[in-house]
Amino acid sequence: MTRNLIRCEWVGSDDRYKKYHDEEWGKPVYDDKKLFEFLLLEGFQAGLSWITVLKKRENFRKAFDNFDYNKIARYTSSKFESLLLNPGIIRNKLKIYSAPINAQKFINVQNEFVSFNNYLWNFVDTPICNHWKSIKEVPASTKLSDCISKDLKKRGFKFVGTTIIYAFLQAVGVVNDHTLICSFHPINQ
């Protein structure tokens, strides 16, 4: 018998959103390639809804070489031009131009910490599990996202403001913000 799932209020009815919520959001990620994917996508999401990015995720995957940060770090001007003309992605010039910068800075962090995973998870001992009753209680940023955002900016990353970084932390499971009524909150598992 399949139980009736109760999801966080933000999910809505789109099947992609449900799948993302159920299978990815809030689950700890330790793989550098996946971490870069979310960092890139969260930067593109700035000022837009996540569903907009989610609907274009596969187009982003194709356009950005399967989120291979080593390739993205070496993008040429002709690659930029093709990305600016690609209707399958968000064609914001500043966001597109930030991708190779962030890829280069990502590699720098890997060189310093052995992996971006080590860098990121060094900020917390274990994933933070919040106990929000409602989505209205979930903050847009925290002291943790402020700290990581400030450090990433100091390292030269772009589109890493505290709100973007908090969404990133939620996406990669550093922070679990499933609400208490959600079937995916650890108390309901």
Automatic annotation (TrEMBL):
Signal sequence, start to end: none
GO biological process, one term: base-excision repair
GO molecular function: DNA-3-methyladenine glycosylase activity; metal ion binding
Coiled-coil region: none
Source organism superkingdom: Bacteria
Amino acids binding Zn(2+): C8, H21, H178, C182
Keywords linked to the UniProt accession: Metal-binding, Zinc
PANTHER family: DNA-3-METHYLADENINE GLYCOSYLASE 1, DNA-3-METHYLADENINE GLYCOSYLASE I
Protein name: DNA-3-methyladenine glycosylase I
